[in-house]
């Protein structure tokens, strides 16, 4: 199964996110049969060399909302807005990207801040996926407020709605800030009057460290505080303090050890 993630080089936290990708790729190689692909907006550097050394296919891509995000950033006085967000919005165009490269119609997309603890491919191949399948965000049984950090995507079906979805995002870009940007786009657009149009992944396929330990967790997602933020929560990100409980410190320790392996 093909697996995709995205990164933009001019992000202010590029090096930290590159390290998270290194751990994600390293763990995927250890315990899964996933085929990693990086949607990358940037230049050649040590990170792209590392990707090639580890057989990660690099796909050059700039998000369709990059210029609009730059303009929105100017309006908000935030010159870093576009670089921070455009990578995440790249997932929207995966149905088209996959078709161009002759890929399969069922792919996995994840954010950069994940690590794999078990093989996910057999379960993902069997999971229902009409459009896409996702797990809950902060509350482990809340599938309405889902999280797009791990997405099983039916690219054939999503291509059917891609032109309209892309237009919807472009027209509502500023409003999406109210509810987590690209995630809000999926929550708002793929929902009819009766129920969400997405299928469910088990929480263990998008397990948050602050939920505690789980022997069944196969993908750990550092939703909220990232590993590199551990020592600076109180001074720099106090709003994330409530998400550092459970198994956060234990998972950061595990992640740090895996990063040393991945280098």
Word description of this protein:
By secondary structure, this protein is α/β, with parallel strands linked by helices. 41% of the residues lie in helices and 17% in strands. The protein is built from eleven helices and nine strands. Strands 3-2-1-4-7-6-8 form a seven-stranded mixed beta sheet, with helices on both faces. A two-stranded antiparallel sheet has the order 5-9. Helix 1 (14-31) links the parallel strand 1 and strand 2 (35-41). Helix 5 crosses helix 7 (155-171). The radius of gyration is 17 Å and the shape is globular. It starts with a strand and ends with a helix. The model has no long low-confidence stretch (mean pLDDT 94).
Model regions low in confidence, pLDDT < 50 over at least 5 residues: none
Net shape = globular
Q: Which series of helices and strands comes N to C?
A: EHEHEHHHEEHEEHHHEEHH
Structural class: alpha/beta
What number is the mean pLDDT?
94
Distance between the termini: 25 Å
**Strand-residue proportion:** 15-25%
Task: Count the DSSP helices.
Answer: 11
| Count of β-strands | 9
- The level of helicity is 40-55%
Q: Walk across the major sheet and give the strand order.
A: 3-2-1-4-7-6-8
Largest sheet: 7 strands, mixed
Cα-based radius of gyration, to the nearest Å: 17 Å
Layout of helices and strands, plus pairs?
Blueprint: E1 2-8, H1 14-31, E2 35-41, H2 46-53, E3 57-60, H3 66-76, H4 81-89, H5 94-100, E4 106-110, E5 114-116, H6 121-126, E6 132-136, E7 146-154, H7 155-171, H8 173-176, H9 182-189, E8 199-200, E9 219-221, H10 233-236, H11 248-262
Parallel strand pairs: 1-2, 1-4, 2-3, 6-8
Antiparallel strand pairs: 4-7, 5-9, 6-7
